[in-house]
Every structure is written in structure tokens, then in C-alpha cells.
Amino acid sequence: MTRAAAEPVLEVRATLGEGPVWDDREQRLLFVDIMSERVHWFHPDSGDHSSSAADGPVGAVVLREDGGLVLARHDCFVHAGPRGEGRAVVEGFRADGSAVRFNDGKVDPWGRFVAGTMSWEEAMPAGALHMLWPDNTVTTLLEGVTISNGLAWSAEGDVFYYIDSPTRRVDAFHVSPISGTISGRRTVVEIGDVFPDGMAIDDEGCLWVALWDAGLVRRYAPDGRLLEVVDVPEGGHVSSVAFGGAGMSTLYITTARAGLTEAELARASHAGDLFALEVPVTGPAPFRFAGGPS
């Protein structure tokens, strides 16, 4: 097992930074601050950083094939322009916003947006995993979720990896490409000691898992073996990871200040900031949503 340390690359002090996604066309990183209700853009080459209001808690942002964005916002899906402008709610679907909110999501290999909800109390299985299709219809893949978090697909697209944080594990499902349904749930990684959060997969098929209450990221082989540990010094809660950069070998890591006491924040001077680390493997470019506004 090897060990390395990430470094802060953007001081943003996010309340709940989440959902990093690399825009390979524009060479920029997008991520959200869920509870501050903002979508962020960061250009690492120039250091330029900007953000846009999302008009509600925003659990995830993904790229559209036509250059726009889709947000998983509070209890609905929202289309937006490349800078978050021109927002339009997808009609015909609403989660129960009094009980749950969207928390994390990604586009699958077939251009569908898969995003999950979580209980506001963070202790009840009131959430679900939903799929937004390119024609803007929504189906539900999984129910009885408590805190829906990390998602990833194998290179072949036949295996879907998923984290419901309180289970303290990574599960895998078989995927039906046509229907999008998932089946055959099995555990592939037992985290055991801490809460897993966001997740990314690299080009060797290994899973990089952000560990919320441990201040680090772990890399696991598909058979569950621990291969590498990445420390996130003074980063507070570690929420998610994504590959990016010109060579797709930069691991970007979002963090959060939420839930930390004043004493803990005093010891975590970079809590809520964006971290990065060059790693010896690459990751795939993110899939893009195949549809657009109705």
C-alpha cells in the first residue's frame, strides 16, 4: 500500500462541497456547494474561479452533450445553460422535498443522469436512486436509501458501483443497458470503520472513495483490497473525488465545513477548500447527458 498527501488548490470554504466533474472540452472543474446553493467553476491553468446561484440546495451538476448543464436540485432536475443560466425545471417529477434532498449524481455510459436522494435527518431510509432519461422522463432504480452517495461504472458498463453511506460499504450491481435497471446487488468493498462518501473509478478499474469523517481518500481494487491512501490535511470532512486535468491524472477532492465544531474548524484551516493530487493512473472523462430541455 502506498500513501500520499493532496494539497489545497482553491480556497472556497464550501459549507458542503460535493460532486466534482471535469469538463474536458473547456478544461475546467465544476462542483457544487450543496447548502450554500451554488455551482462553482474552476480553471486550474489560470486559477480563475466563479460561481452561480442554483436557487436551492444542489446535490449534483453534470454536463450535457450540447454544452449545457443539468442540476439535481433539492427535489427536482433542472436544465441550465453552460454558466448556469436559463434554468428550467424538468416537469412531471418531484421527490418529497420535505423528507429528502438530492445529494450526488452522475451520467451513466448511455447518457442518462442517475442521482440519489437522502433523508434530511440522515438516519432514515427515505431516499431513492432516480434516473433522468434523455427524453426527460424519470424512473426509480432503487428505494430504501438513507444517504445516497458515490456512483461509478466499469469500463464495460456492465457493473454499477454505489455507496449508501451508513452501510459503510461499496456495493455493485449488474446493469441492463437498455432499461437502465440494476440487479444482483453484492458488496465489493467493506469500509467498516468510517463513512464513505463520493467515489470515482480509474482506468485500471479501481475505486477512489472519499471518507467523510477520516480526512482521506482510499483507493480500492475491485476485489476490495486497499491499494493506496491519500491524506487531505486540514481539509475537514472529505466529500468527493473526480479525475481531471489535461492528462486526466489529477485527482480533485472536495471537502466540507458542515458538521464541524468551532474547535474542529480551528484545526482544519482548509475545510471546505478544493484539493488536488497528481496520481500515477488516469481516469475516464465523464459521460454527458444525451438530452436537453423539452
Structure report:
By secondary structure, this protein is mainly β. The chain has one domain: TolB, C-terminal domain (Neuraminidase, 6 Propeller), CATH 2.120.10. The chain has one helix and 25 strands. The strands form six sheets. The chain has a five-stranded mixed β-sheet with strand order 1-22-21-20-19, with no helix packed on it. Strand 21 and strand 22 form a beta hairpin.
**Outline:** globular
Largest sheet: 5 strands, mixed
Please work out how many helical segments DSSP would assign: 1
Radius of gyration, in Å, reads 17 Å
Low-confidence stretches: none
Major sheet: order of its strands?
Answer: 1-22-21-20-19
How far the N terminus sits from the C terminus, by CA atoms, comes to 49 Å
Mean pLDDT: 97
Kindly give the count of domains.
Answer: 1
CATH architecture: 6 Propeller
Q: Can you tell me the CATH superfamily? A: TolB, C-terminal domain
CATH topology (fold) name: Neuraminidase
Structural class: mainly beta
What is the fold's blueprint, element by element?
Elements: E1 2-5, E2 7-10, E3 17-23, E4 28-33, E5 38-43, E6 48-53, E7 58-63, E8 69-73, E9 76-80, E10 88-89, E11 100-107, E12 113-119, E13 127-132, E14 138-145, E15 148-153, E16 159-164, E17 169-175, E18 182-190, E19 196-201, E20 207-211, E21 216-220, E22 226-231, E23 237-244, E24 250-256, H1 262-267, E25 274-278
Parallel strand pairs: 1-22
Antiparallel strand pairs: 2-25, 3-4, 4-5, 5-6, 7-8, 8-9, 9-10, 11-12, 12-13, 13-14, 15-16, 16-17, 17-18, 19-20, 20-21, 21-22, 23-24, 24-25
